[in-house]
Design a protein that fits this description.
Rossmann fold, alpha/beta, 15 helices, 6-stranded parallel beta sheet, 388 residues, single chain, globular, 8-stranded mixed beta sheet
Length: 388
């Protein structure tokens, strides 16, 4: 079997977190004798063609170099909202991506196209599908569903590409339900793989007074609520923040105003291979996000046997079974979050049993070989429907 991946997020260098789960899926598929070629946008300093293991990666130009900034950073929507130059670059991206997809379908002759995120990639894939008669699978990851919700004008296009896909997947039940509400199509729930090789437990002492947040610093991630919760916890408890984003300056100012700035360490973005050491050292990982597509940070923490506390929102209800693999906080309020953290760390084992159960569950569902087999079945079922 041969599969052409379309994505606007993909690792740019070793350890890059951008789209790392897509590379893991592609690599696991090649290990299962599925040939994968990835089509993704260009960016400064990246090779036009490279091979990562057995995965061939092709990057297409779509604008003058200084405007090729839409991909990889997770802020495409905000750039397009705020800049006419970014809007022109987006038009270039859609046109160039469509041309690249058609060209590589004809050259690579895949059995199917796998578009990650409905916008822009399933939109691009739909053009290639119509011209080359190649079936398409579409996967929702979260930000694309939020976009369809936020921009009702896009709903018609959303429904069109979903209904023309031979299979549609979503990385959580919540996303599947959201997609069904907007399209009438119920996606298959099939999450992306996680690096189970490097994310392993450390059977030594955790830093008893350190909480951990990992993720982009955006309003949706809820770090402001976490800082308010920290202010309500004992003064010996600290917080490590791994990640960066547009909200960092505001959050640092908030920490100062709450009187907790000396308890917070801002580590900035760290490469994927470095995250395991942070997870292993933490007393607990806190995921205060709203409407998280899945919550891969919680999965990564599970694999390191670190207990997780999260708001019961979005795909996190798939990842955490309350009281079994972690703690879900039902009310999105700092005081309730602080109480849940305090109760966790007051347990005789400080949540170690939750961590062990979390690792067992996460490994059974997110190991790359498990996910690859799941997607091969989805591909075969989709191809079977086109041949009837």
């Amino acid at each position: 079997m041969r599969v052409l991946f379309l994505t606007h997020s993909f690792p740019r260098y070793a350890g890059d977190a951008a789209g790392s789960f897509i590379l893991r899926l592609a690599s696991a598929l090649t290990d299962a004798d599925v040939a994968v070629r990835v089509i993704t946008p260009a960016a400064d300093g990246l090779a036009a063609v490279e091979r990562i293991g057995q995965v061939e990666v092709v990057r297409f130009r779509y604008a003058p170099r200084r405007f090729e900034t839409l991909a990889y950073t997770g802020n495409m929507a905000s750039q397009v909202r705020e800049s006419w130059g970014a809007r022109a670059a987006l038009a270039g991206l859609l046109l160039s991506a469509s041309a690249a997809a058609i060209r590589h379908v004809r050259d690579f002759t895949p059995d199917l196209i796998h578009a990650h995120w409905w916008f822009p990639n399933a939109l691009v894939g739909d053009v290639a599908r119509r011209i080359t008669r190649t079936p398409m699978v579409t996967t929702f990851h979260g930000t694309d569903i939020r976009m369809a919700r936020a921009y009702p004008v896009s709903r018609g296009t959303f429904r069109g590409v979903v209904r023309e896909s031979v299979a549609v997947t979503a990385v959580s039940r919540w996303l599947a339900e959201e997609a069904h509400d907007m399209s009438g199509v119920t996606p298959i729930v099939a999450p992306m793989p996680v690096d189970t090789n490097s994310l392993t437990p450390f059977h030594g002492p955790a830093r008893a007074g350190r909480l951990l947040f990992v993720g982009r610093l955006t309003a949706q991630k809820g770090v402001d609520l976490l800082l308010h919760a920290l202010a309500a916890l004992p003064s010996e408890m600290g917080l490590d923040v791994v990640g960066d984003g547009d909200e960092r300056a505001r959050l640092e100012s908030l920490a100062q105003s709450l009187g907790v700035s000396d308890r917070v360490v801002w580590h900035g973005t760290r490469p994927g291979h470095a995250l395991a050491s942070y997870y292993r050292a933490a007393a607990a990982v806190i995921v205060p996000s709203l409407d998280e597509g899945l919550g891969l940070v919680a999965v990564e923490a599970h694999l390191c046997e670190t207990p997780v506390v999260a708001f019961a929102s979005g795909g996190l209800t798939d990842v955490i079974e309350d009281g079994v693999t972690g703690i879900l906080v039902q009310q999105r309020q700092p005081a309730v979050l602080a109480a849940a953290v305090a109760q966790l760390l007051a347990r005789p084992d400080r949540g170690a049993a939750l961590g062990r159960a979390g690792r067992k569950w996460a490994f059974s569902r997110f190991d790359p070989s498990v996910v690859a087999r799941r997607y091969i079945d989805i591909y075969r079922d989709g191809l079977g429907r086109t041949n009837r």
